[in-house]
Write a structure and sequence with these properties.
With 510 residues, the protein is mainly α. Helix 6 runs antiparallel to helix 7, helix 8 packs antiparallel against helix 9 and helix 13 packs antiparallel against helix 15. Helices cover 42% and strands 6% of the residues. It comes from Dyadobacter beijingensis.
Length: 510
């Protein structure tokens, strides 16, 4: 595992972020963290580099960021084509040599390495304490975010909180220790960050830290730690975000996915096609291969929902805005399109698709009308919202119910706020704590359908694989009969990392 960050990569990433920095004047090979971190501008550039490490193609920028999450029921992929890496995990048969899965490992680590450099050096910068603390607070938040995805995906990982030598080979630390580091970082972020950054979309603030903490505590209440005392902590952090009054669900559901930085966006990665940083998990990636636009561009068929996941969706406006169920097939004249249902024999996959990810930002993904497709583009300027306000509302609803022996009026108010925007009636009153929790988990499944990892991590923390596999349509990619579900909640460590760290033991089942 190469874990010594290059200051040159910080400079290059900062240049990409700003679009105007000149890197040709001085010999960059002579730069070290000790000589680079001098001004607030240096520090700002280094923090910008962390965001870029998380946003690029090898991290959240492309569909391979979710490779091992294809075991979820809101993700499946083509039975053929060049989708083998996704298909193997869809069949719960992925292995450590899977090439696409490498992005899930390397993306967070690259951000962590950059964050470690910032945290180790920010104090020496010639700037005000307030400015330095704001920069360091963002680094703490982003480091916690990286570790949070690593520990939930791969289980035990090394806790590396300082820059270390490229030849070091640290041990994998226990899951509990990783979570201790995540919580410590987020608590520091809460202390150092302002409640809100004005006119600075994309910067993590105190509300982002509290929102992530709520999700972390909720996850710790389930498998593998099963620390149910953390439900109360999750409820408290989520409640603080709710009571801040900063966020709301006033944006119609469909528009959330065609506009940027709306009133429910708590933390989102920013993308810019012209700046060389596109989001490629919208647009072509989720469009059927069968669809060919008037200009000849076509869909990639990377991901879509399982049939029964779609069929079990609630009947509401949100469902209509989530799923794409009528395909447009270009006719021989190249100008007209035939509309066919998703299960038509004229389609090769016979699956519904995702509507909410098609357009990108106001149509920079798929440009279409109700009956025609003008163009299908793989690169969009759409913000990827890692934390949307409904995540906080539903975390509060579940955690408050499970920590207090049953749902309160506030628990119901939180889930009903999400349901109201979806076009659903209020949830049935008088549910037990467990029944209410199950209702919240169901709500999360469809509020966040197809959003990287949200559904999968609920399946993991509640150990739902036997249930969702039992409900899986026979038309999906087949799962081998001898799969041990208990060994599939964690992904394998990539084979190259195992080779670099010969003392590590691979996760069970791989």
């Amino acid at each position: 595992m190469k874990i010594k960050s290059s200051i040159l990569s910080i400079l290059m990433a900062a240049a990409a972020f700003s679009g105007c920095q000149n890197l040709t004047e001085d010999p960059k090979a002579n730069l070290t963290p000790g000589t680079y971190f001098k001004t607030q501008s240096d520090l700002d550039g280094a923090v910008a580099a962390i965001y870029i490490q998380f946003a690029r193609d090898g991290a959240w920028g492309f569909t391979n960021r979710s490779t091992s999450y294809f075991g979820s029921d809101d993700f499946t992929t083509d039975p053929g084509l060049n989708k083998e890496d996704f298909r193997l995990f869809d069949r719960l048969s992925g292995g450590s040599g899977n090439g696409s899965m490498v992005a899930q490992w390397q993306g967070p680590w690259q951000g962590i390495y950059q964050a470690n450099n910032v945290i180790a050096n920010y104090a020496k910068v010639n700037s005000t304490d307030e400015q330095k603390n704001q920069s360091a607070g963002q680094a703490y938040f982003l480091r916690a975010l990286g570790y949070y995805y690593l520990v939930r995906t791969f289980g035990p990982v090394p806790v590396i909180l300082t820059p270390i030598d490229v030849d070091d080979r640290p041990d994998r630390d226990p899951i509990e220790k990783v979570y201790e580091a995540i919580i410590a970082d987020l608590q520091k972020a809460k202390e150092m960050l302002p409640v809100k950054f004005d006119n600075a979309p994309g910067k993590a603030d105190q509300m982002a830290a509290r929102s992530l903490l709520a999700d972390v505590y909720l996850t710790m209440s389930g498998w593998p730690l099963n620390q149910t005392s953390n439900y109360a902590q999750a409820a408290a952090e989520a409640d603080a975000v709710i009571k801040s009054g900063q966020f709301n669900l006033s944006t119609p559901y469909a528009q959330v996915f065609t506009t940027n930085n709306g009133p429910e966006s708590i933390f989102g990665l920013q993308y810019n096609v012209n700046g060389g940083l596109p989001l490629r998990s919208a647009g072509s990636s989720c469009v059927p291969l069968d669809e060919v636009a008037a200009n000849g561009s076509s869909g990639w068929d990377d991901y879509y929902p399982e049939i029964n996941f779609y069929k079990k969706a609630p009947k509401c406006k949100r469902t209509d805005d989530t799923f794409y169920t009528t395909l447009k097939l270009r006719q021989p004249d190249g100008k007209t399109f035939k509309l066919v249902p998703w299960d038509s024999p004229e389609t090769h996959a016979r699956h519904p698709y995702y509507k909410k990810f098609r357009a990108g930002l106001n149509g920079d993904g798929v440009s279409e009308t109700e009956t025609t497709i003008n163009s299908i583009n793989p690169s969009t300027n759409k913000v990827y919202d890692i934390i949307r306000y409904p995540l906080v509302l539903l975390a509060y609803a579940e955690a408050s119910a499970m920590s207090g022996g049953g749902p309160t009026a506030a628990s119901y108010a939180a889930i009903n706020e999400v349901r109201k925007r979806a076009g659903l009636p209020n949830l049935t009153a008088g549910l037990s704590a467990t029944a209410f929790r199950d209702s919240v988990v169901y709500e999360r499944a469809y509020e966040f359908a197809g959003e990287f990892g949200v559904r999968w991590f609920d399946i993991v923390r509640l150990q739902l694989l036997p249930k969702i596999v039992a409900e899986r349509s026979s038309e999906e990619n087949p799962i081998p009969a001898n799969v041990n579900f208990a060994q599939k909640y964690l992904a394998p460590i990539p084979v190259n990392e195992m080779a670099r760290n010969p003392k590590w033991l691979q996760n069970d089942g791989y």
